[in-house]
């Protein structure tokens, strides 16, 4: 099984310049290769866009392409791996476009690749060959050829745990550099699922999640405060003049706040999904129409959509590890409007109604709890079983360090808040009247 171990890097200023240079090299190779392919197509030729062909073309032309104003080649300043990762991305983009055009690719139509601009493309490059990865005598460092030994924010050797490292992708996000290592671990499937019973989960805006057994996982104050700050920063950004320095600063601020809120939420979800996957034998969640997810300006809704996708992604791989069964129910199932006691479905239920009251049987129950119970019941139907079929592995997963569905959760230090069995009793707030 392939897993991604992602750690934050702590580079020196000189190393940071090196990282930026390598990411720029990847972008340069991508753009140069794309220009070459476009020229070939315009000259009615048949372009070759396999990684092998692009690499051969790059090596034959790099002395003429990667030169400064005096004609001095500069490509030697960066590892060849950086150019290679740019060409690899181009090769993938072209093949995705071609397959999509011929109807051989699922999902939304993929367009012809566009040139990558410095402002809009997140800096990124990867190492796939050579002596990159862990450092023998320092568990909190990574070796990046041509850049050096870069200190990490956590014990990366412990996270990798002796597994073989196949690939290392380095990227920058919201002002911070990360390394994502693709590691290969032996498949270990547990024989029996956890001892707990079945559970349904309702994700909410007001609370993080409500479980069908009455457990309520509240939205922590820090998360709400972060979301409020983000909202204010976004408002402030929208008032800045386009192209101004202040707009640029405001944009950076929004990006940083976004990243912090997302990190906090992801961390919480990790604790929740680890608890769920190791406690319950059967876990039911609602399906989410990811493709139909539209960009909207309602922050709470947008954040919830992301949480939903993330919750499912984490549960998919964690249940494989613990042996719990994951059930995904139809998203058109009326989990909120249906009475969990008698099954009557209400014609209308406004978002403001926090308490569900059934006219037919007289049940009065917390709205989210009612939905969670319905999700659990719907999930026990046999046809919903094992939404995640297989191991979650893609054919070309080894080349997709950062997009692989099988990811490892961030290691939890001592600050970890346990959401285990004992803590669950503490937050038990079954508001059934
Ligand atoms: Zn009822």
Automatic annotation (TrEMBL):
Region feature Disordered, mapped onto this chain: 382-433
GO biological processes: DNA recombination; transposition
Residue ranges, compositional bias (Basic and acidic residues): 393-402, 415-425
A Pfam family matched in the record: OrfB_IS605
Residue ranges constituting the Cas12f1-like TNB domain according to the UniProt record: 308-375
Record domain Probable transposase IS891/IS1136/IS1341: where: 190-296
InterPro entries the record matches: Cas12f1-like_TNB, RNA-guided_DNA_endo/Transpos, RNA-guided_DNA_endonuclease, Transposase, Transposase_put_HTH
All residue ranges annotated as the Transposase putative helix-turn-helix domain in the record: 1-46
Keywords in alphabetical order: DNA recombination, DNA-binding, Metal-binding, Transposition, Zinc
Highest taxon above the source species: Bacteria
GO molecular function: DNA binding; metal ion binding
Family label: In the N-terminal section; belongs to the transposase 2 family. In the C-terminal section; belongs to the transposase 35 family.
Name of this chain's protein: Transposase
């Amino acid at each position: 099984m392939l897993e991604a171990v992602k750690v934050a890097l702590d580079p020196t200023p000189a190393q940071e310049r090196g990282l930026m240079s390598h990411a720029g090299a990847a972008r340069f190779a991508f753009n140069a290769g794309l220009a070459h392919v476009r020229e070939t197509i315009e000259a009615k030729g048949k372009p070759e866009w396999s990684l092998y062909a692009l690499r051969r073309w790059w090596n034959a032309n790099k002395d003429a392409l990667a030169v400064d104003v005096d004609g001095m080649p500069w490509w030697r300043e960066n590892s060849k791996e950086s150019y290679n990762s740019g060409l690899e991305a181009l090769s993938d983009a072209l093949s995705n476009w071609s397959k999509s055009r011929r109807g051989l690719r699922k999902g939304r139509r993929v367009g012809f690749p566009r040139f990558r601009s410095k402002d809009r493309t997140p800096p990124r490059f990867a190492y796939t060959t050579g002596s990159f990865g862990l450092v023998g005598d320092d568990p909190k460092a990574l070796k990046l050829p041509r850049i050096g030994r870069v200190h990490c924010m956590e014990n990366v050797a412990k996270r990798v745990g002796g597994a073989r490292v196949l690939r290392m992708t380095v990227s920058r996000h919201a002002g911070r550099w990360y390394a994502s290592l693709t590691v290969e671990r032996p498949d270990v499937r547990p024989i029996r699922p956890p001892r707990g019973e079945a559970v349904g989960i309702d994700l909410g805006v007001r609370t993080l999640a409500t479980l069908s057994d009455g457990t309520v996982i509240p939205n922590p104050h820090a998360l709400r405060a972060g979301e409020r700050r983000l909202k204010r920063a976004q408002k402030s950004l929208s008032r800045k003049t386009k192209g101004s320095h202040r707009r640029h600063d405001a944009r950076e601020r929004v990006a940083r706040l976004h990243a912090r809120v997302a990190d906090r939420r992801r961390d919480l979800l990790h604790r929740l999904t680890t608890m769920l996957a190791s406690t319950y034998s059967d876990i039911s969640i609602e399906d989410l129409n990811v493709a139909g997810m539209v960009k909207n300006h309602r922050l709470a809704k947008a954040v919830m959509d992301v949480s939903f996708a993330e919750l499912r992604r984490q549960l998919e791989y964690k249940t494989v590890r613990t042996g719990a069964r994951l059930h995904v129910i139809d998203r058109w199932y009326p989990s909120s409007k249906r009475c969990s006691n008698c099954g009557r479905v209400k014609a209308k239920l406004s978002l403001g109604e926090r308490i569900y009251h059934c006219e037919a049987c007289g049940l009065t129950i917390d709205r989210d709890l009612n939905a969670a119970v319905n999700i659990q019941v719907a999930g026990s139907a046999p046809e919903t079983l094992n939404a995640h079929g297989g191991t979650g592995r893609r054919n070309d997963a080894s080349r997709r360090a950062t997009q692989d569905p099988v990811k490892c959760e961030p290691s939890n230090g001592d600050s970890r808040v346990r959401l285990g069995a004992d803590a669950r009793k503490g937050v038990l707030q079954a508001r059934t009247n």
